[in-house]
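Page 37, continued from 36.
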């Protein structure tokens, strides 16, 4: 497939010409908007929507991955999944006709592939996720910078995409290399300007150098960890009820931030509520396996009201799900190495250190 060398103004013009599609980009945060705590990394970018008619912004593609996962575009934090009573049979709102996510990183693509296994494979297909997945156009981006917590190289990943998206972009000093990776991507590039030039061997060599430099940087900043986990070779970890998990659980404040910000966590909670005297809705929201109320059951005295009453076993379950249960069930790791859970943790728990210390 052709790879195009596109000056930044031409790339911005192309984004503005995407017609009726809703375009979302990572935008640099104004100073003072980000909240930092000891031990966390500044990412400096947040997902925003490019509104029709507004001045087109240059996506912050040269910054580390956005602080928030783009999982919410496919699995909203809260959504109506069914209607009852007078409203029964009315269609449930799913998504806009088509969205374009610009600047999705390779770790996020791995997360999308993981969610696809959970939501689309097997006996049951999740229809709302399927509709959003099919309507989304994904423009991935090579990482040319990273957060201190990024560790994709420890879980078999790389900071650039060669598949899994529709178009891939590599930021250069004053331009972008743009490469279609799917039929949908080639169709999207049909509206490109005629002055887009094919990339030269020198441009492609520069891309190779940038990719190799990022891998080297990530390996260097994660040199203290010997995790080296892959889908085929996950680490061996203690059982959830072993005492060794307690020293990490002691720092957990049970806030659920790690699971909410994780691009692969997909636990949910269902509840019904009335919207009128004769109609009701069923709502699905994100849930967290770290919370004491997770899977709480009704029952009388002497019954086990929750399957994991101790916090240490809930923390263990979360990490075991990433590195043990997911490879067993889906054949892939549940951790993509984005490091967001480390940034978000109020107890400064580093998933790299947990696995490094407890692996057998």
């Amino acid at each position: 497939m052709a790879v195009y060398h596109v000056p930044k103004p031409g790339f911005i013009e192309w984004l503005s010409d995407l017609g009726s599609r809703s375009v979302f980009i990572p935008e640099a945060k104004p100073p003072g908007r980000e909240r930092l705590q000891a031990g966390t990394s500044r990412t400096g970018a947040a997902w925003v929507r490019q509104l029709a008619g507004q001045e087109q912004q240059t996506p912050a593609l040269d910054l580390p991955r956005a602080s928030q996962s783009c999982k919410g575009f496919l699995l909203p934090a809260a959504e109506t999944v069914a209607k009852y009573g007078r409203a029964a049979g009315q269609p449930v709102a799913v998504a806009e006709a088509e969205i374009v996510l610009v600047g999705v990183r390779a770790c996020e693509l791995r997360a999308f592939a993981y969610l696809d296994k959970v939501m689309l494979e097997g006996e049951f297909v999740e229809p709302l996720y399927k509709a959003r997945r099919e309507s989304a156009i994904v423009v991935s981006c090579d990482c040319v910078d990273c957060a201190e917590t990024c560790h994709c190289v420890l879980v078999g990943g790389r900071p650039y995409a060669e598949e899994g998206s529709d178009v891939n972009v590599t930021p250069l000093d004053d331009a972008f290399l743009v490469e279609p990776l799917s039929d949908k991507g080639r169709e999207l590039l049909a509206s490109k300007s005629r002055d887009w030039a094919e990339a030269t061997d020198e441009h492609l060599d520069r891309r190779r150098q940038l990719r190799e430099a990022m891998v080297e940087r990530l390996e260097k900043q994660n040199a203290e960890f010997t995790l080296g986990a892959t889908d085929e070779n996950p680490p061996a970890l203690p059982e959830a009820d072993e005492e060794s998990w307690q020293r990490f659980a002691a720092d957990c404040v049970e806030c659920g931030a790690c699971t909410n910000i994780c691009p692969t966590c997909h636990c949910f909670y269902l509840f019904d509520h009335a919207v009128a005297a004769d109609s009701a809705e069923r709502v699905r929201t994100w849930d967290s396996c770290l919370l004491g109320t997770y899977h709480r059951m009704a029952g009388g005295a002497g019954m086990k009201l929750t399957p994991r009453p101790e916090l240490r076993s809930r923390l263990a379950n979360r990490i075991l799900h990433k590195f043990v249960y997911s490879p067993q069930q889906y054949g892939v790791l549940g951790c993509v190495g984005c490091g967001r859970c480390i940034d978000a943790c109020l107890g400064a728990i580093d998933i790299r250190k947990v696995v490094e210390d407890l692996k057998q």
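The longest strand covers residues 268-276. Flag for discussion at group meeting. Confidence is low (pLDDT under 50) at residues 31-42.
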